[in-house]
Every structure is written in C-alpha cells, then in structure tokens.
Fold this protein.
Amino acid sequence: MRTCPGWPASEAGSARVPWSSDPPATAPAARSRLAGENFPARLRASAHVLRHVHLSEPDLAPVGAGGSLDLPAISAALRDIGYAGWVSVEMKPGGLEAVRTAAGVASSLR
C-alpha cells in the first residue's frame, strides 16, 4: 500500500485518520486513492466533519476522462450523506474540453 505525505504508514488505510488535522475536513480523492482506500466509504465515515470534496486523479490527470475515480459511487456516497458543500477539481491543463468535462463531473456529484 502506498502512503501519502503527512500520514503515518501504519494508518494510511484507516478510516479513522482525518483528512485535516481539525474539523472541518477536506476529502482529497487522489490522496485516498493512492493510500488504497475506498473513497466513497471514507466520505460516509467522515460525513459529520466533511466540508469540502477535492476531486483529482493521481498525477493530476484530467478528472472524468476515464480515470480511476469511481464517480457513480462517489456521487451515491455524497447523496447518501446529504452533502451540500464544495466540490473542487485539481488537474493539469488539458484544454478547454477537459475543463468543461471536469466542471460537469463536479457539478453532477451533488
């Protein structure tokens, strides 16, 4: 299992490890993915402190372009917990169409 900066290797896959040191929490999709976590389960487990969902693919590949994120499962998790907070996207430049696709993905998740 790969670990992420700031997370002890012994806790990298634990749902008990917060994304931020203090509430409110930010949920970074790529960090969760690289740590081998189930991101939708992590969203559900952190619903009580979750205030910001950060979508990104490993290596900042374009979001929504056949990447590793399970977008239907992420969307279902956000609906299940009644999430109404921010969803942001971080990716390397990929042209205007890639930006439109990522914006559409982010807006469709809630």
